[in-house]
Amino acid sequence: NNPFLKHSYSTKMKLSAVAILAVIGSTSAARPSLTINVQDGNFADIGGLDPSLSWSASTSSGDVDIEYGIEASAKPTSDIASLPKSIWGKASTSLNGWGVSARAEFEGTDFTHADVEVEASNAEADIDVTLTASAGDGFAVQTISAVKGIDSDGARITVNPRYNVETEESDVVLTYSKDGTDVEVTASQDAQSVTLSRQVDDDNRVAPTLASSGDISVAWERSLGDDNSITTTVKPDDSIDVEWKDAAWTANINLPLDGTDITGTNVSIKREVEF
């Protein structure tokens, strides 16, 4: 309750945010956005806040479109170099009917390692291919996936094989959508699951999921209008999860279950602010 400490903490907070905005403002006139997250259900003091600033911009060079951005912490600190959470860049172009893009993301200011994602899509063939990898001392492919879409008799069907190079595990995701009903089947050598999602009316969607392990979950999405919604997911003897989206606000509530008893409450609240 020391007013001097509160003033000092507030001053550092403002200086950290100003420092980030100054760097961003010096590179582009694009407006950053501020996300404030209450983490781990901690409302006791400002230490429970996890404010971050994100900013992105784009340009082009010949036939190549370039995007880049940064996400940085707005927590009070005198170490400006510790503020960046991630820095990323993406290049996109068209090649023989394929849209090709490559994205690299660095954690903080460590430029010795990058997470890489390469995507290729062909609208005419209705196929997308994605490769993820890590780059550092070498280039190591992590996952490979493809999505093939098929339109048939008013229905939308997709086939999505996936392969994890590191674990040598693979699975396939099949989806079928028609007239407000969606079916998703995920199958690997060891596990399978089926989700049936049905639009009950204009405002309600129900989606039960059954896994080969015997696990069951049911999700209920209630539309509140203007892209606002509440989604409740119940997993018996595991948890109840509630996500409430209201304009720029997003609240997530997790209630762990032991049988029918609620054993705790975890709350996360996020607010996005456009400058």
Question: How are the SSEs placed, and which strands pair?
Answer:
Layout: H1 3-27, E1 33-38, E2 52-61, E3 64-73, E4 84-95, E5 98-107, E6 114-122, E7 127-135, E8 139-152, E9 155-164, E10 169-178, E11 181-188, E12 192-199, E13 204-211, E14 216-225, E15 228-235, E16 239-246, E17 249-258, E18 261-262, E19 266-274
Antiparallel strand pairs: 1-2, 1-19, 2-3, 3-4, 4-5, 5-6, 6-7, 7-8, 8-9, 9-10, 10-11, 11-12, 12-13, 13-14, 14-15, 15-16, 16-17, 17-18, 17-19
Molecular structure report:
This protein has 275 residues and is mainly beta. It has 1 helix and 19 strands. The chain has an 18-stranded antiparallel β-barrel. The longest helix has 25 residues, at 3-27. The two termini are 31 Å apart. The relative contact order is 0.09. Mean pLDDT is 84; it is low at 2-29.
Q: Helical percent range?
A: under 10%
Order of helices and strands: HEEEEEEEEEEEEEEEEEEE
Label the structural class: mainly beta
The rounded distance between the terminal residues' Cα atoms is 31 Å
Low-confidence stretches: 2-29
Shape: globular
- The number of strands is 19
Mean pLDDT: 84
Tell me the radius of gyration: 23 Å
The total count of helices amounts to 1
Largest sheet entry: 18 strands, antiparallel, barrel
Beta content comes to over 45%
